[in-house]
Amino acid sequence: MIVAGFGFRSGVSLPSLRAAFALAGQGQPLVTHLATAQDKLAVLLPLAEALGLPLTGVAPDALVATSTATCSVASLSARAVGSVAEASALAAAGAGARLLSPRRISPDRMATCAIAASVNLQGTPT
Q1: Which residues form the CobE/GbiG C-terminal domain (predicted)?
Q2: How far is CA 12 from CA 30, 84, 102, in A?
Q3: Which CATH superfamily is domain 2-117 in?
Q4: Averaged over 94-100, what is the pLDDT?
Q5: Do 115 and 86 meet the contact criterion of CB atoms below 8 Å apart?
Q6: Ramachandran area for residue 98 (φ above 0: left; ψ -120 to 50: alpha; else beta)
Q7: Please, are residues 79 and 5 in contact by the beta-carbon 8 Å criterion?
Q8: Residue ranges per structural domain of the chain
Q9: pLDDT category of residue 119 using cuts at 50, 70 and 90
Q10: 3-state SS of 68-100?
Q11: Do 6 and 98 contact (CB within 8 A), yes or no?
C-alpha cells in the first residue's frame, strides 16, 4: 500500500491539495490510498473522489505517536506532531511503514503531502 498523507490549513482549495500531491508524488510509486487527520476528512474527500482512491482518517493519538522526518512549527502548535502529512501517511500505511517522500508544500503554502509505503514480511515496500 502506498499512502499519500495530507496536512492543510483551513480554507485550503482543491488546486492546493492537487499541487502538494503532485510535488510529493514525483518519482514515487503509484499512490493507492489517501490519508489525513480524522477531523479533516471532509475537506480531502473531493480529491479522493476525483482520484478514485480510498480515504483514511487518522486518529489524533496515532498522529502524535508517529515520528516524522520534518518539523513544522505550525503543525507542532496545532497538532503536537512535526508533520501532519508525514504522520498521516505513516500511520495509515501501518506498522513498519517507511516514508518515501517527506512532506512537500504547495506553492501557496496551504497544503502539504507526504508519501509512505507499507512493508511486507520481507521488509520490502508494498
Answers
A1: 2-116
A2: 24, 15, 20
A3: CobE/GbiG C-terminal domain (3.30.420.180)
A4: 94
A5: no
A6: beta
A7: no
A8: 2-117
A9: confident
A10: CCCCCHHHHHHHCCCCHHHHHHHHHHCCCCEEE
A11: no
